[in-house]
Design a protein that fits this description.
The chain is mostly helical. The protein is built from two helices and no strands.
């Protein structure tokens, strides 16, 4: 065998090994493509019902939102009616009730000032504000009011 024949045999062996590696790689690629196709088909089979369920949920949510909107508008109307009623009641009964209360207070004061001198008069109520002092002139007037000789 000559050198050219040996070189030809080596090239042929090299090509045979290269073709076998390529055949294995193509077989694995075909297997991967089959698995990918199956996975995409499974995802499609599961996604279609999920999308239908999601669409139904969105429709249901829209219906509930419409109901809540109508309830909110009804509550707003009831609130405005209650406010109007409150204003009407306050204006109708408020004035006369204040007048009756003032009249009652006046009568009590008038009757209270006509009491006998046997009963000591109550000291006026004082309001104390922490951190505030009363000027000396007003203090003297207050002390003079509280003392009855």
């Amino acid at each position: 065998m000559s050198g050219g024949e040996v070189a030809g045999i080596l090239v042929a062996v090299f090509w045979a090994i290269l073709v076998s590696f390529l055949a294995v790689a193509l077989a694995r690629l075909a297997q991967t493509l089959r698995a990918t196709t199956k996975l995409v088909a499974d995802v499609t089979d599961q996604a279609v019902p999920l999308l239908a369920d999601a669409s139904a949920a969105v429709r249901s949510a829209q219906t509930q939102i419409d109901r809540v909107d109508s309830i909110a508008s009804d509550v707003q109307e009831v609130t405005s009616n209650a406010s109007a009623l409150s204003t009407t009641v306050a204006s109708t009964f408020g004035g006369p009730l204040v007048k009756v209360a003032a009249f009652g207070y006046g009568v009590r004061r008038a009757l209270g000032s006509r009491r006998d001198d046997d009963v000591p008069a109550k000291a006026p109520r004082r309001t104390v504000i922490v951190g505030r002092t009363v000027p000396a002139a007003r203090r003297e007037k207050r002390n003079a009011r509280g003392k009855k000789d």
